[in-house]
Inverse folding.
């Protein structure tokens, strides 16, 4: 009995001292992240933690001491719990950054925009011809009769000048939206002396009802090369290089005689149908060939009307529809999707070059 009492007398001040020491530790609680705070909780408040161990010991405290020691222990437990919650709350205020900052984590993907298929194909056309020495030239979309028609040898009664085809901006028939990019040829020739080697990409307008196969605006790329001794063979070579670069090395070309007011002779160029390899299919209407552009040797009248001596210089020109090339490359059947800006369609070109 005596011994037991003696032990208790020594034991109680020790227990109080341990509680007070823990209280001091709790005051100094610090954590920089969620893991550290959890480690504190486990060390002090879990079932096997230090405060729980004190509660176990508390059971052996003499009844007359229980009140004082119990109060002290409860204070310790409350303070520890409050302090841990307080630190957790301070993390929550700063958001997940402070609590769970992990700089090695892959960021959430930001949805990237895509280039429009027309831009992709236009850029590819420009790239292929720039490797043959062509530079880009630009001209206005609102034009006059001279640049769009007269300088290009269109006779006054030519149907392309008609209201049916051309959008006139004012009552004055001399202000109109360009119906083709061939007018940039004139603008370049007026200001530049040969040798000239330009590529003119741009938007053109025609008074057409909008359908799957026609639109009131679309895109063209015009090419013009003028120098001494430029021949039809040069034209053919430039276009063959283009066709193979654009559609693949195995692509064949053929030139059919045609008519354009600004070229003489004129031709239309077909490429072998890459769907059936030239055997004939529904896409090429059984012929094995699909038309992709118009071309020819620049008519001497055009050179002269732009102040270039046609006895000294010759040249070739070609013009192609960007939508047409895009359709051939990506099989887009309905022209209208190009201007609808439906992101489901545009997203399909995410992985295109
Ligand atoms: N300008 C013509 C069109 O819009 C395309 C064209 C054909 C352009 C032959 C040319 C050419 O330069 O030589 O249909």
């Amino acid at each position: 009995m005596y011994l037991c009492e003696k032990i208790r007398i020594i034991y109680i001040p020790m227990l109080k001292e341990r509680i007070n020491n823990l209280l001091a530790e709790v005051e100094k609680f610090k954590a920089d992240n969620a893991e550290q705070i959890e480690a504190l909780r486990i060390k002090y408040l879990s079932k096997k933690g230090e405060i729980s161990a004190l509660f176990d010991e508390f059971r052996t405290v003499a009844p007359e001491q229980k009140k004082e020691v119990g109060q002290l222990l409860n204070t310790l437990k409350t303070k520890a719990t409050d302090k841990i919650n307080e630190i957790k709350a301070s993390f929550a205020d700063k958001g997940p950054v402070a609590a769970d900052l992990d700089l090695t984590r892959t960021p959430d993907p930001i949805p990237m925009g895509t280039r429009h298929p027309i831009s992709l194909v236009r850029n590819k056309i420009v790239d292929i011809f720039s490797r043959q020495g062509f530079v880009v030239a630009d001209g206005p979309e609102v034009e006059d009769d001279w640049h769009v028609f007269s300088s290009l040898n269109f006779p006054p009664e030519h149907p392309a000048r008609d209201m049916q085809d051309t959008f006139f901006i004012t009552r004055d028939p001399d202000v109109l939206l360009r119906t083709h990019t061939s007018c940039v040829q004139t603008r370049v020739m007026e200001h530049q002396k040969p040798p000239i080697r330009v590529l003119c990409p741009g938007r053109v307008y025609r008074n057409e009802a909008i359908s799957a196969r026609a639109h009131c605006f679309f895109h063209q790329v015009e090419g013009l090369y003028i120098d001494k001794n430029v021949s039809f063979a040069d034209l053919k070579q430039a276009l063959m290089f283009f066709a193979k670069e654009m559609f693949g090395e195995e692509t064949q070309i053929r030139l059919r005689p045609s008519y354009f007011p600004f070229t003489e002779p004129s031709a239309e160029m077909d490429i072998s149908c890459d769907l059936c390899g030239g055997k004939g299919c529904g896409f090429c209407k059984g012929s094995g060939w699909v038309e992709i552009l118009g071309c020819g040797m620049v008519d001497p009248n055009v050179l002269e009307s732009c102040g270039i001596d046609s006895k000294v210089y010759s040249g070739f020109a070609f013009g192609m529809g960007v939508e047409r090339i895009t359709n051939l490359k990506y099989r887009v059947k309905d022209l209208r999707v190009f201007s609808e800006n439906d992101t489901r369609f545009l997203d399909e070109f995410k992985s295109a070059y």
Remarks:
- The radius of gyration is 41 Å.
